[in-house]
Amino acid sequence: MGAAAAVERAADVAAEAAEFLELYHGERRLPGLSARLAEVREEIALTGSYRHTRDELAYGAKVAWRQSVRCVGRIRWAGLKVRDRRHVTSVAGIAQELAAHLAAGDNGGRIQSVVTVFAPDQPGVGPRARIWNDQLIRYCGHRRDDGSVLGDPGQVGMTEAARRLGWRPPPVPGRFDLLPWVIETAQEQPTLVGVPRELVREVALSHPEHPWFADLMLRWHALPVISNMRLRIGGVDYSCAPFNGHYLGDEIGTRNLGDRDRYDQLRAVAAGLGLDTSREDTLWREHAVLVINQAVLHSFKLAGVRVSDPHTESELFMKFCAQEERAGRPVHGDWSWLNGSVGWAALHAVHHRYYDTAVPNPNIWPTDRVYDPSGVVKTTLRERHDTARAQED
User: Fold this and answer.
1) What sequence ranges are listed for the domain Nitric oxide synthase (NOS) (predicted)?
2) C-alpha angle with apex 126: 124 to 132, nearest 5 degrees?
3) What is the per-residue pLDDT across 225-277, written as a single tens digit (0 to 9) for each?
């Protein structure tokens, strides 16, 4: 990075830092803003970044969730459990903390919202640590010789990437084989780590009115831990910060199990229901997806695992909007993400509009996949950091 670019970047970080610290001190009604701003500006001038205090990190992560435009469950933002693990920098240490995150998030089936924050990105270079998986619990997508996929087609690229690193699938592959983690740091090459099987709670799906549904042998894991998004707080990026809430039923029933490019179970369920699938005006797809969603909600509740239905969550989101407006804060949102796919026309959030299109910070941002669809990795972190050091020399 050139000197001019570094100065410009430091100025941007300082501006975001000031905005965040003013928010933090103002909402928490804390003294000492001027002194903290001076301290942070001096640190940025020297290093290009600054270190959050534990309290700043915790509050920033919660506000990032509060302002996340894609999340309908933000009414729970203040209850987020923040695990500060910035001191953990090795692959082995990160893997151990990911296992601890699974246990904390699962909470005996009473899923609680958790984020584990590892070391911040290096200014001008990028992440110091990275998890390749988009979620900590995912099922393999095994590509067969005929081009078809056994398992989750959405994970074919990740499955291939793991195989290129030396991972081997089970002798008899199945539809719900757990993917290993791939973790890398600026010092260590991408490393395969097996997911602790005993920490993965799964729910077998059945339907309260259709006994044949259980014969489909469908199941899903209880805990959605997103692991490939970037947490940004006051100008500081944390690219390794996995977080979870709990599942909304149609995330599993409609998207994961119903989508054509995922498990694609609509025709199987329609066959069990005896529906006419020869033409679209019978609305057989809508009927089938509703039954899958009923099975998900029924099965998770039967297993004692926390799950939400779209109508309840939509009502809670409107309550959140009212709370934010009373606090004088605009509610930012991506309409297409905030309305469930089942019964969406009757959801309260459908009628809410978001006129401020800006996305505020702190926030949680999507990142590009590390690998291409065939599993080939673009650039490792060690290569990126080695290049940055060579340019400095």
Assistant:
1) 70-77
2) 170
3) 999 999 999 999 999 999 999 999 999 999 999 999 999 999 999 999 999 99
Six token digits for residue 1: 């990075």
Closest to 139 measured CA to CA, from 118, 160, 153: 153
Residue 162 burial class via C-beta count within 10 angstroms: exposed 0-12, middle 13-18, buried 19 and up: buried
User: pTM, whole model, 2 decimals?
Assistant: 0.94
Q: How far is CA 82 from CA 47, 94, 111, 152, in A?
A: 26, 15, 15, 31
